[in-house]
C-alpha cells in the first residue's frame, strides 16, 4: 500500500474524529460530566483505551492510533500529546493543564533540521501525576506513583515513586515529601 494513502487513511480514521469531538464539545464547560462524555466519545480512536477515561477541552492529540490509555486516566485542558513514537499511559494517571508529551524529535543531517523525525516511545506508569505545564520528551519512562512537578522538562527516565522537577528535570525526592 502506498505510504501517503496509508497516512491519509489513518488521518481520516483517527485524527479527524478526535478533533471533531473536541470542536463539538468545546461549547460545554469543563465539568465532571462533560470530561467523561468527551473521554467516552474519544475512546474508540486510540490504540487502546480503558474505562473511566476523562479529557478536558482544548487537548490536541496527534497519532491517537499509537496511544494506549489505561483505566481512570484524566487529561486536563490544553495539553498537546504526540503519539507518533508510541505512548502508553497506565491506569490512574493525572495530567495537569498545558502539558506536552512528545514521542519523537526532529531529525538532523549535517547540522540542519530535515523534514523527518526520529520516534521514541514514552511510558507513564500507573498512579503518576504530571503537574501543569510539564514537558515529557521522547524515549522517557516515568515509574509508577511518581510526581512530575509543574513546569518540569523531563528528558530522561525515572524509577517508581520519584518526585521530579526542574529544567532539565532531576530527582528532588519522593511524592509526599515536604
Q: What keyword list fits this structure?
A:
single chain, 178 residues, alpha/beta, UDP N-Acetylglucosamine Acyltransferase, domain 1, 7-stranded mixed beta sheet, 5-stranded parallel beta sheet, 2 helices, 31% strand, globular
Could you characterize the architecture of this molecule?
The protein has 178 residues and is α/β, with parallel strands linked by helices. The protein has a single domain, classed as UDP N-Acetylglucosamine Acyltransferase, domain 1, CATH 2.160.10. 19% of the residues lie in helices and 31% in strands. It contains two helices and 19 strands. It has helices at residues 3-25, 32-42, and strands at 48-49, 54-55, 60-62, 67-69, 74-75, 80-82, 87-89, 94-95, 100-101, 104-109, 112-119, 122-124, 129-130, 135-136, 141-142, 147-148, 153-154, 163-165, 170-173. Helix 1 runs antiparallel to helix 2 (32-42). The model has no long low-confidence stretch (mean pLDDT 91).
Amino acid at each position: 500500500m502506498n505510504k501517503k494513502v496509508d497516512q491519509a487513511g489513518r488521518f481520516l480514521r483517527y485524527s479527524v474524529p478526535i478533533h471533531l469531538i473536541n470542536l463539538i464539545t468545546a461549547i460545554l464547560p469543563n465539568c465532571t460530566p462533560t470530561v467523561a462524555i468527551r473521554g467516552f466519545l474519544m475512546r474508540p480512536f486510540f490504540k487502546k483505551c480503558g474505562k473511566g477515561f476523562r479529557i478536558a477541552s482544548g487537548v490536541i492529540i496527534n497519532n491517537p492510533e499509537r496511544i494506549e490509555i489505561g483505566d481512570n486516566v484524566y487529561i486536563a485542558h490544553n495539553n498537546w500529546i504526540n503519539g507518533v513514537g508510541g505512548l502508553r499511559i497506565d491506569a490512574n494517571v493525572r495530567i495537569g493543564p498545558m502539558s506536552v508529551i512528545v514521542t519523537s524529535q526532529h531529525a538532523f543531517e549535517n547540522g540542519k533540521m530535515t523534514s523527518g523525525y526520529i520516534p521514541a516511545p514514552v511510558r507513564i506508569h500507573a498512579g503518576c501525576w504530571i503537574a501543569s505545564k510539564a514537558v515529557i520528551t521522547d524515549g522517557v519512562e516515568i515509574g509508577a506513583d511518581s510526581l512530575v512537578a509543574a513546569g518540569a522538562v523531563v528528558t530522561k527516565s525515572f524509577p517508581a515513586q520519584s518526585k521530579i522537577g526542574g529544567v532539565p528535570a532531576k530527582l528532588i525526592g519522593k511524592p509526599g515529601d515536604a
